[in-house]
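Proteins fold reproducibly. Next comes an illustrative record:
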Amino acid sequence: MTVKELTQRLGEARTERASRQNQINNYLRFADPTAPRIGDSLHKPQDRSDEADDRFDTTLNEVAEDFAADLIARVMPRQSNWLAFEPNEQLPKEVRKQLEEPLRLRTATIFDAIRASNFYDDAAPNWALDQGHGTACLQVTDPGSGQEFLFEHIPVNQLLILRGERGPKLIAREFMWELAEALAYWPGYNWPERLKAEARRTTGQCRRINTVLAATRIADPGGERWRWQVLVDGKHLIHEEELTGRGSCPFILSRWRTHSASAWGVGPLLKSVPDAMTLDQERYLILKNLGFAVDPVTMYDHDGVINVDGGVAPGDWIARRAGSKIDRLDPGNLSPAYYEQGHLQDNIRRAGFQSGPRQRGKTPPTLGQWMDEKAEEGRRLEMPTGKLYTEAVIAIVSRVERLLLDRGEIDETLSVGEKVITLKPLNPLSRQQDYEQVQNAQALLREYSTITGPQVLAAEVDTRATFENMKARLQDTLIEMRPEEQADPYLQAVLGQPGTSAGLEEPMPEG
């Protein structure tokens, strides 16, 4: 792709971003006031300290932060692995058994690299806050020299994207960078001699260049391919290469929900922006009216005796002519404003999945109402997260996996004997299905035990094999089962005599 073609696509991406500018900026103004916004200058950060003085309500800010924390805990928990890997083909049970330990070590290596990076400290909080408006992007790179992987959050004023038929066809980042620093990081790129000479001069240290990192998808039904280009000062294409394979692109673009008209996502908190604007104005009017209530306007007859020009203080004695009248203005009724304020706050909390089971009014909800509201909130949050698992969770893991492969810290395939096995990440939604299947099995076992009794259940169901199946489905590594040859003596000692089984009071008849 030539400089002219790339510049044209970047222009199209800026136009598409401008169509969402007001919507996203209004969200950021209330949800993340210090974040860069679309239209901000790339040369220096925008100072918005004065803007905080004009805001009177922080409900959306608080809800957005809680939503971000819940989102990370739900789809990218720090304390556990986000997903598992599985073979690309069906394998016999004994082969899958031999794969368990190599798969566990490989998975642990990938997630240990994520935890050791700056992901949770720097990138994840900003990424999750951007999901409120629906579009978030990370850049994941290997700094080299044995350093931890670097996760960078790309703010909306630097992000440029274009939609394609199968996902985004262009993801680009535009930012300003010191020329000397760029040359130090990319010494092997095709730099123009003029820029090299500028960097060698003393004043060149302050020279900043417009830098664009662009990934353009190459149509290929056989796999993932990208054209990676670096453009500086809008006219010098200093680097170009082709990236091939899953996880090869440094950009991780994830959207909450999308529609066919735009590459930009639609987030759950966008619909709360009108309520946040109304609530902010309402809070201002309440504070204004409270001033009149606490320190009301006072009117008096100018009778030639009363003199309050110097103000009044507690304990003052003020003379007035007999019959003079003093009145105070009524500040108005604030009750309707407080009532409506509560409704607006509830709307914002619901949009950010923070409504939860809450007491409304003086009567506390029943246990059934409490559980129903909690279940409803879980269903609402579960609906859109499928796209996040694909575009964020699996994409980030695939990118870190690729970087570890390039470092030589893991192998692309696993081997059992002479058989070479390729792997793929398992969508975390399938884990939810595993949990549901285990819960269904537990419910069926309880129902069968209720109908027939525990003795018949123990006689007709292989409880050990059933428990091992449940353990495997939940991918549990904590519970250790004794080998059957060791378990039998223990079982006989617990039951008191040989030939009995758990739940049976009499020995099993032989034959």
Q: What stands out?
A: The first helix runs from residue 3 to 18. The chain has 15 helices and 13 strands. Residues 137 and 253 are 4 Å apart (CA to CA).
